[in-house]
Amino acid sequence: MSSKFVILSFVVLAVISSGCTGPGEEGSIPSREAVKMTVIAGWAPDGVISEGEYARKISPPGGIYEVFWKNDGETLYMAIKGETGGWVSIGFEPSVWMKDADIIMGYVDERGASARDAYSTGNYGPHPPDSDLGGTDDHLEFGGSEKDGFTVIEFRRKMDTGDEFDRAFRSGETVNIIWGISDSDDPERRHQKAGKARLTFM
Which residues pair with 157 in a beta bridge? Predict the structure, then answer.
């Protein structure tokens, strides 16, 4: 069963149980298409950061990297953009340098966009996929693009995935992030540029 269908089913059940109806439509249930548009209106993992698609943005000094995001209590929608033809990444809440960071890495090649849900086991890596450590890949959706010298990766995940290798987020919380970009699509290659910043969830 797809994650989209699970979300849609949850929303439909919520509407039924609440008795919500529209004018002149007592007892009616919105169509699946209408519910779908309500759930994901204004966001698509297409590698294009559209006006109004995200609520917040940070641009660390240098202008080579940006993070865009919006969230509610359940779901985080995010885009990471770097001036590179290789991979881009973001890591949440490292303990020391890179260690213990919840990392998302992504790149675009001839096959399309790829994204890795990873975890850094050491101060300077490695950062294997969560699934290699006994966790799970918790991207609900992702996509990306490589254009005009920039790589964009967009993804959607739960604020709290329940995976021990993912950071559990809370609305209104401020978290430390690290970021990196590489001129290679190989996730095992080291970054060429990196930095750190802080962001606050809605």
Answer: 76
pLDDT one-digit tens code per residue, 66-99: 999 999 999 999 999 999 999 999 999 999 999 9
CA–CA distances in Å: residue 190 to residues 11, 61, 82, 124, 197 = 42, 21, 15, 10, 20
Which pLDDT value is given to residue 41? Answer: 64
pTM of the predicted protein model:
0.79
Dist. CA 57–CA 67, nearest whole Å: 6
Digit-coded pLDDT (tens) for 100-138: 999 999 999 999 999 999 999 988 888 999 999 999 999
Cα 152 from Cα 45, distance rounded (Å): 10
Helix (H) or strand (E) holding 178: strand 174-181
CA distance 75 to 25: 30
**Measured distance CA(157)–CA(60) in Å, rounded:** 23
- Taking the C-alpha atoms of residue 45 and residue 133, their distance in angstroms, rounded to an integer, is 27
- Here the tokens at position 79 are 């885009």
Structural domains of the chain ordered from first start: 3-40 (no CATH), 56-200 (2.60.40.1210)
